[in-house]
Amino acid sequence: MAYPYPYQQQPQPSASAPMPAVPTTVFGPQYCAPYPVDLAIVKKVMTISDGNFVVTDINGNIVFKVKGSLLTLRDRRVLIDAAGNPIATLRRKIMTAHDRWQAYRGESTEAKDLIFTLKRSSLIQFKTKLDVFLATNTKEDVCDFKVKGSWFERSCVVYAGESNTIVAQMHKKHTVQSILIGKDNFTVTVYPNIDYAFIVALIVILDEINEDEKAE
């Protein structure tokens, strides 16, 4: 049976990260695979108009691209599929203390199309910790997902809520090619039944926050 997902050889998840019984859909059920999905994310450092991220499957087929607006280059990103259709708009909320970002469906920025909100867990951090609240979680008492990243160690992990259940892991790889042509390479493993478009969006925002930290 063929699945409409990036190809994967279907390794089994580890015992420490049990497979969710029900797919965790954030952007859409078409982005939830019944097996672990490995994605490669290439960040184009020197680029003008072709977008600043390209996401491929393990065979090199393009799955997503991420583009920035020329007018608000650092404050807005649009996640698009391989056919160029906009999936979500990622927008930084200006003048907030906790580095707050919001994701909307398509190219909308209207409240009715809000998908999730992301913000720092605290103002002072040695390692980046981000809390993610789905749009239905209006009280924001407990986060729906948590991102913990160490850019010194070049890695990050996405957890389900306040639990220790891992839903995705990212590792950053430096290659000779990436150094010569100005690209950063990431590999991401998304666990079964987890929305991998959502995970890509989280990593893009994490990278933007990291770039802000380096600029300070």
Q: Which architecture of the domain at 31-117 and 172-215 per CATH?
A: Beta Barrel
Rg from C-alpha positions? Answer: 16 Å
Q: Uncertain runs with pLDDT below 50, 5 residues or more?
A: 7-17
Write the CATH fold name of the domain at 31-117 and 172-215: Porin
Q: Report the top-level CATH class of the domain at 31-117 and 172-215.
A: Mainly Beta
Query: Which structural category do the helix and sheet elements fall into?
Result: mainly beta
Note the run of SSEs as H and E.
EEEEEEEEEEEHEH
Strand content: 35-45%
For the biggest β-sheet, the strand order reads 1-2-3-4-5-6-7-8-9-10-11-12
Largest sheet: 12 strands, antiparallel, barrel
Protein described:
The chain has 216 residues and is mainly beta. It has a domain at 31-117 and 172-215: LURP1-related (Porin). It is 12% helix and 37% strand. It is built from two helices and twelve strands; from the N terminus they run E-E-E-E-E-E-E-E-E-E-E-H-E-H. The protein has helices at residues 176-181, 196-215, and strands at residues 37-44, 53-56, 62-68, 76-81, 86-92, 101-105, 114-120, 128-134, 145-150, 155-160, 166-173, 183-190. A twelve-stranded antiparallel barrel has the order 1-2-3-4-5-6-7-8-9-10-11-12. A hairpin with a 5-residue loop joins strand 2 and strand 3. The radius of gyration is 16 Å and the shape is globular.
